[in-house]
Amino acid sequence: MDLWKRFGEKEVSHSMAHYLQAVASLKTEKGHARVGDIATHLGVSKSGVTSMLRSLQTRGLISHEKYGCVELTVSGQRLAERTESSRLVITRFLTEILGVSEAIASEDACMIEHLVSPEVSVELLRLTSFLRSEHPAARALLQAYRATPHECTDHSPDACAVCQTSCLRDSLVRDIGDSAERTGV
Amino acid sequence: MDLWKRFGEKEVSHSMAHYLQAVASLKTEKGHARVGDIATHLGVSKSGVTSMLRSLQTRGLISHEKYGCVELTVSGQRLAERTESSRLVITRFLTEILGVSEAIASEDACMIEHLVSPEVSVELLRLTSFLRSEHPAARALLQAYRATPHECTDHSPDACAVCQTSCLRDSLVRDIGDSAERTGV
DNA sequence: CTCGCCAGTTAAGCTACCTCAACAATCTTG
DNA sequence: CAAGATTGTTGAGGTAGCTTAACTGGCGAG
Question: Of these four, A5, A112, A158, B6, which has the most CB atoms within 10 Å of its CB?
Answer without folding.
Answer: A112
